[in-house]
Automatic annotation (TrEMBL):
Family matches, as SUPFAM superfamilies: Cysteine proteinases (SSF54001)
Reaction equations catalysed: Thiol-dependent hydrolysis of ester, thioester, amide, peptide and isopeptide bonds formed by the C-terminal Gly of ubiquitin (a 76-residue protein attached to proteins as an intracellular targeting signal)
Biological process, per Gene Ontology: protein deubiquitination; proteolysis; rhythmic process
Protein name per UniProt: Ubiquitin carboxyl-terminal hydrolase 2
EC number in record: 3.4.19.12
């Protein structure tokens, strides 16, 4: 593939672009590598848009995604696909660029970005309070669709991989996924979950491999605090499917009582953990304010791996929700990728904080980055 843009000197390319001044400050950003913290710019609240601001700040502090925007790599992906519409990605990149190159610390308005996300997902029209995790899903999906390296999704024939080993099957399933969905967003955020179904009659075990963009964790019941690891254990706990839920066993060719279990087949670079604080069961949704104790460093997930993988994650951002389902307020805590210091982003205000304050009963969406993964 010939990338036309690559022929130009980066500065020359910057000059040709309408956002030339931003591009120039970005080259300065990368060349000076200064110790002065950047990215400490707030986002104005446009009326109940704290959910959006909170997630935007978490994403802006996602090192690889930030650099993808700052280096304008998304344009290469767009050009290679001759995309007609990439307005959401453009606005997202522009916003990230302004957040990281702004000379002053004055808060900026995300209204151009909001216009685009509304076009993509009309549910975000208006100024209602929204769920930050749902917003994150819509946003990542929207960005992915615009920078997908696959421009025409092929029809993927249904193939039978059941004769293969689990490892081989997982690889084939993943490659099939990439034939349709392949982007920087997928590179960073998507992992693969294995679910195994074991028949209680004959012991036959069938496996399915599905991509995941985040994990929604149930909160373990407790009167006091619970550990994140216990929420993960609850999520991956063996579950019995009986009664109406009985699946069909492929060997017995009949509906049988089965046990189902999840494990992580492929660990994503960025692991988003969503704590299910809001129960959907009742009409008036209730919020669980259980204190979930999560590690800031070295979240070790090896016990949840399908095979002998070792995966260690470090926390770098949290979306914090205070208040109730109806009248809440979102903020973000982010670790600055350049300095390693933590900051609170409360709409237009950004202030330093200590990492000891990051854990609270209001932590709602956790962003972890993979620090180490290896086969044991
Ligand atoms: C966020 O800022 C508002 C004022 O804009 C303030 O009332 C509120 O207490 C702040 N919240 C937190 C958690 O710092
Ligand atoms: C986050 O939640 C904690 C715990 O309730 C609260 O005290 C704190 O003010 C919130 N922080 C921010 C920055 O919103
Ligand atoms: Zn069976």
């Amino acid at each position: 593939v010939i990338r036309h843009g690559a022929m130009l000197h980066p500065l020359a390319a910057a000059m040709l672009h309408p956002l030339a001044s931003i591009s120039l400050s970005i080259s300065v950003f990368f060349s000076q590598n200064s110790k002065n913290a950047q990215g400490l710019v707030g986002l104005r609240n446009l009326g109940n848009t704290c959910f959006m601001n909170s997630i935007l700040q978490c994403l802006s502090n996602t090192h690889d995604l930030r650099d993808y925007c700052l280096r304008n790599t998304h344009r290469t992906d767009l050009n290679n696909n001759c995309r007609a519409n990439a307005a959401l990605m453009e606005e997202f990149a522009k916003l990230t660029q302004i957040l990281w190159t702004s000379a002053s610390n004055e808060a900026i308005s995300p209204s151009d970005f909001k216009t685009q996300i509304q076009k993509y997902a009309p549910r975000f029209v208006g100024y209602n309070q929204q769920d930050a995790q749902e917003f994150l899903r819509f946003l990542l999906d929207g960005l992915h669709n615009e920078v997908n390296r696959v421009s025409v999704r092929p029809r993927v024939p249904v193939e039978d991989f059941d004769h293969l080993s689990d490892d081989e099957k997982a690889k084939r399933m993943w490659n099939k996924y990439l034939e349709r969905e392949d982007s920087k967003v997928v590179d960073l955020f998507v992992g693969q979950l294995k679910s195994s179904l074991t028949c209680s009659e004959c012991g036959f075990c069938s496996t399915v491999f599905d991509p995941f963009w985040d994990l929604s964790l149930p909160i373990a019941k407790s009167s006091g605090e619970v550990a994140l690891i216990d929420c993960l254990r609850l999520f991956t706990k063996e579950d019995v499917l009986d009664g109406n839920e009985k699946p069909t066993c492929q060997r017995c060719k009949a509906r049988r009582k089965c046990t189902k279990k999840f494990s992580i087949q492929k660990f994503p670079k960025v692991l988003v953990l969503h704590l299910k604080r809001f129960s959907e069961a009742r009409v008036k949704t209730a919020k669980l304010s259980t204190f979930v104790n999560f590690p800031i460093k070295e979240l070790d997930l090896r016990e949840f791996a399908s095979d002998n993988m070792n995966a260690i994650y470090n926390l770098y951002a949290v979306s914090n929700h205070t208040g109730t389902t109806l009248g809440g307020h979102y903020t973000a805590y982010c670790r600055n990728p350049s300095t390693g210091e933590w900051y609170t982003y409360n709409d237009s205000r950004v202030s330093p904080m200590s990492s000891s304050q990051v854990r609270s009963s209001d932590a709602y969406v956790l962003f972890y980055e993979l620090a180490l993964s290896s086969r044991m």
